[in-house]
UniProtKB/TrEMBL annotation:
Subcellular location: Membrane
Species of the source: Globodera rostochiensis
Protein's UniProt name: Serpentine receptor class gamma
Key words, A-Z: Membrane, Transmembrane, Transmembrane helix
Stretches that traverse the bilayer: 28-50, 70-95, 116-134, 218-240
Membrane topology: Multi-pass membrane protein
Main localization, broad class: membrane
Protein family (similarity comment): Belongs to the nematode receptor-like protein srg family.
């Protein structure tokens, strides 16, 4: 959770840096900002539906039990929606880098022309696919119903969970097809690979209602999703782009210096302050004059004694 919060803070700092400086106004950073929105929403939804109920179950269970059904279903809707939107934007980012190599002259003009359509496609297609999830019958499922000391819970669906199965299917189907294509080294093995991958996911779906599968899903889901979204996106950009890294450090140093200057409201107290230096110098001069007069008086006194002797 700590690395997720740190990655989200870095993500925000990068987005602010991109928006503030016009030199980052290009197609790649526009797609990066477009992906940051579902990434951020996905992490916030994981806190709403998974992490906070697991940590503060005793406090939140009475509050969540008063929520209407649409608030419980909306968490799953945003979870699947942000996941699909992230996949679509990532695909467009890869295509953007490919066109930057193939057609460097027409690259920016082409992407600037199709940017509104890409935005509608990225956010519209997941909405059309995920709206049936809003009909689900949400419930609060305790992690251990027989325990009196573990009040943690999670938002789930009543009955056979048809909409959760549907959401998992539409989320994993693009991954299944992509994995089949990547594994394909020979067209003759294409059907076998597709059959193997599809059967693997079907076996996973059949075992979804098992208690161990649910426990693993609830425990590792936030870690895997955060790693694939906010953590990779924020830290890889910081590592790969010298321009964004230098500008981010420069902006942060300017903000830090400004805060230090604003904190200096009045002069500091003590002898080292400038307001005390004139008085300190006057004291030194006075002591020097007194010591000089004493030396002259002593020398005159001993000189008169020697003359008398």
């Amino acid at each position: 959770m700590c690395i997720s919060i740190l990655s989200m803070a870095l993500y925000i700092a990068e987005i602010v840096t991109i928006v503030r400086h016009k030199k980052f106004y290009n197609s790649f950073y526009a797609l990066f900002v477009m992906r940051a929105i579902p990434d951020w929403l996905g992490v916030l939804v994981s806190f709403y539906g998974n992490r906070l109920p697991s940590i503060f179950g005793a406090v939140l269970y009475p509050i969540y039990s008063q929520f209407p059904n649409w608030m419980l279903a909306f968490g799953l809707f945003l979870t699947v929606h942000t996941f699909l939107a992230n996949n679509l934007v990532t695909a467009f980012i890869l295509l953007n880098r490919l066109t930057a190599i193939i057609m460097p002259i027409k690259h920016e003009k082409l992407w600037r022309k199709f940017r509104p359509l890409i935005t509608i496609f990225v956010y519209g297609v997941p909405t059309l696919l995920c709206w049936p999830v809003l009909k689900m019958d949400g419930i609060l499922q305790l992690d251990d119903p027989n325990s009196t000391t573990d009040p943690s819970f999670a938002i789930y669906e009543a009955g056979d969970a048809p909409y959760i199965h549907y959401s998992l299917y539409i989320s994993l189907l693009p991954q299944t097809e992509t994995l089949s294509i990547i594994l394909n080294e020979n067209c003759g093995f294409m059907h076998w690979q597709h059959f193997w991958v599809t059967c693997s996911w079907q076996a996973y779906f059949c075992n979804l209602d098992g208690p161990k599968t649910k426990a693993l899903l609830f425990v590792y889901y936030p870690l895997i999703m955060d790693t694939g979204t906010v953590m990779l996106a924020s830290w890889l950009l910081l590592w790969a782009s010298d321009t964004i890294r230098q500008q981010l450090i420069k902006d942060f140093s300017i903000i830090q210096k400004t805060n230090i200057q604003n904190n200096r409201v009045g002069p500091l107290e003590g002898p080292g302050n400038n307001t005390h230096r004139p008085q300190f110098r006057t004291t030194i001069a006075t002591n020097f004059i007194i010591r000089t007069k004493l030396r002259i008086a002593v020398s005159v006194f001993f000189g008169n004694e020697s003359l008398t002797a």
